Records
---
Amino acid sequence: MGCSGCRVRFNFGKVLSKVSVFFAMVLIFTYFFYCLAGLCDSAPRALYRQQLASDYDILDDPRRVLDELRPSPRLLPDRNRTVSEDAAQVDAPGPQLPLHVRGSAKESAESHGIPVSNTFGTKRLPQAIIIGVKKGGTRALLEFLRIHPDVRAFGAEPHFFDRFYDKGLEWYRSLMPRTLDGQITMEKTPSYFVTKEAPNRVCNMNCQAKLIVVVRDPVTRAVSDYTQTLSKNPGLPSFQSLALKNSTTGLIDITWSAVRIGLYAKHLENWLQHFPLSHFLFVSGERLVSDPAGEMGRVQDFLGLKRVVSDKHFYFNQTKGFPCLKKPEGSSRPRCLGKSKGRPHPQIPSEVLQRLRDFYRPFNHRFYQMSGQDFGWD
């Protein structure tokens, strides 16, 4: 009896082993069947975001492109990453990215199987351009506008109508993001407003273009301009030595670009030779800070857009002293302009600032009359 029981247990073990091998082979066969059918790697690829090109063009700031190329954090395993919960800093792009840099970024993304361009829509020449002014709030305006689903904008400053006009309109068009019917193509380059040749060149492209000028108290604008230059060149002479031809006479040096840009009436005269006043919208840089939703309402009306961007999109960052965008859909953090915005200004002697205010006053009043708006800078 004992030996018979041993044989039963032994046979049962052999049967169990064969059943285990059988099920293992079934699982392996099933796995190879699915792989041969092309189903194994299709699921992971579907996890990547498909909205990259519709949100930001691949030619935009490389840091933003890299952020957008990353898969959603919800789809990735937790690798003990430490991500700051502070507002995301969106630094204003500098000069146009070299073509080889943009090309390598695109090739790198494509080599990883990540879609980097939207094949839908058409690359069009801009129907609206933010033409000025430097240190007036043009970057903030562009970022706020890009919330709107019917606005597609080139993120960097192409400088086509002042620096690269010889490259031709097709080169300029190639920089623009793709748009669908009903969407507006835009770009912004603040130096256009003060470039003598720009109005004629823009009109040669499209005399029906809509032009947006963001203006700011010219004295504050000049100090902000100087502050930006000083951050890049700490050895820069003092503000007063650059602004004044002679400290004794107190005459203002209008050859200094920081002063010359603030002569808004002079620059507008040049543009009005090619475009009627109805083609311009003058945005207050001060109100863009104090009431961004109100100014954005005016901009959307001017562009013929539905008022989508509203006060629900903004909150005021007390540290930076600027409005920031609340958490956009699909993002885990709010977005603020970068550290180059809201820098503390150096102390300028009050008598120098007063001389500047006296100097700008007649030009400001002339600009109020020309634009039909009193900006209250005096």
---
Amino acid sequence: MNKIGADELGQILRLVTDPADRKLASLVCKEWWVMEGPTRSSLRILNLDHLPRLLTRHPNLTTFETPRVISNADLALVAQSYPKLEVFILDCIQIEGIDDRKNFRALQKVGDEGLCAVANGCPKLSKIVIKRCFAGLLGIMSMITSAAHNLTHLDLYTCTLVTDQALEAIGSSSCLLRFLNLRFCTKITDVGLSFLANGSCSKTIEQLNLYSCFEITDDGVSLLCKMRVLEELDLSYIGQLTDVGGQAISTIRTLKKLKFQNVIQLTERTVVALAKNCINLEVLDLCGCTSIAITCIDAFSGHKCMRFLYLLDCSCNDLRGPAFERLALGCPSLESIVVEEFCRERLLQDMQESTVST
């Protein structure tokens, strides 16, 4: 091993991507420990007390991640240390004693000031994940403006300060976004969706998550028909959504994965429209849609792409084995139908009796 030079060792270590393997490699000897640092491209920090030392040891990172509450000063330090950063993941989930006032104040400090520092210092960002933090209009605008030519992935999960103004900034930017997560961004309204639907990102977004965006109605959902390449859409827990919006969504022929969990106003009219129009649909989640007559799943008989159908917490009174059997025989791509466990035995018995009678 002494014959391996520093350059050769560096090339070898760059090929080792598994975190556990890299840790073992760094324990071989002091030389390997020294070389492991500059050859690392990604880092997930659990103890922010060690941040200054780790930044010095790993100077060539392109991916930075922490699940801890990080101060704006530390974010500025990260931005200063890694101008070539491409992936930035901040998820303030691991905070001890969230009910403690001191910790809650710390969580509030993870906001626009630190995000602006990252935006200004890291213009090559292509993936930004800022979950459960107090990101507002200023921080989001700075990030999408700075990384406009590279940004394809934006995750704002449970950023409760995100409003329609933030969506206006996203819609009017030149970002080529393919993924946008607005799950639990509860201040978003139909106005915000209009900015997305009419903006340049309507031509690029492939995955959109609007889970529990309570203020959205049929008017806003109907605007999503303008999104030309949308493949995955989550409209779960949008209480104001009805068949008007559901049938409008069915006109998006590019859809492959669609979730309507607990949208209790949807009926079989939406399901029939989806079966007829969404010829590329592979996954349909209707869990908790209690107003849908399950017999309407016959509409998917003959569908060429449907693979997974989720019917948990739907009305079990309408569930009949022969309907599932017809669907399975008529839809060759179907892999799984998920129903309540207590319904399965009865459904299997129905199908067996149907087979015997024929």
